[in-house]
């Protein structure tokens, strides 16, 4: 009988990937990023462990959406106070905080528990083409 092996925390090798979001579709890019953050691209994937890699996303302001989503897609946030709901369209949020668009799309594709929060912390999103993670020597992800 074959035994299932569970990777220990010491044996998990974490890599750094660089993704250029220029002219990429939001949902398709977010699914690829979420799979890497979860570790589904590795043979040692374990659903209840954080076996994923780090992902750096640059050019977040150049992300694309299909159809009329740029004028119709809404982003909501709530302060927790009565009447504290703020609603913003995709195009205004893209001008103001483009990083939040990719972060929210990826966060919705991760588990909604403490494991998902741990995996989400490995996502780094930046507005322009520059990032401060050159020392980690990220590998360019071409998908």
Polypeptide structure, described:
The chain is α/β, with parallel strands linked by helices. It has a domain of 93 residues: Alpha-Beta Complex (Ribosomal Protein L13p, Chain: A). 29% of the residues lie in helices and 17% in strands. The strands form two sheets. Strands 5-2-1-6 form a four-stranded parallel sheet, covered by helices on one side. Strand 3 and strand 4 form a beta hairpin. Helix 1 crosses helix 4 and helix 3 crosses helix 4. 20% of the residues are buried. The mean pLDDT is 95.
Short recap of the structure:
This protein has helices at 26-38, 69-72, 90-96, 98-107, 114-120; strands spanning 16-20, 54-58, 74-78, 85-89, 123-125, 139-140.
List keywords for this structure.
29% helix; alpha/beta; four-stranded parallel β-sheet; 143 residues; 6 strands; single chain
Walk me through the topology.
Elements (H helix, E strand, L loop, with lengths): L15 E5 L5 H13 L15 E5 L10 H4 L1 E5 L6 E5 H7 L1 H10 L6 H7 L2 E3 L13 E2 L3
Parallel strand pairs: 1-2, 1-6, 2-5
Antiparallel strand pairs: 3-4
Helix pairs in contact: 1-4, 3-4
Structural class: alpha/beta
Could you say what the CATH topology of the domain at 15-64 and 98-140 is called? Ribosomal Protein L13p, Chain: A
Question: What's the arrangement of strands in the largest beta sheet?
Answer: 5-2-1-6
CATH superfamily of the domain at 15-64 and 98-140: Ribosomal protein L13
SSE topology string: EHEHEEHHHEE
Considering DSSP H and I runs of 4 or more, what fraction of the residues is helical? 25-40%
- Strand percentage lies at 15-25%
Number of helices: 5
Give the overall average pLDDT. 95
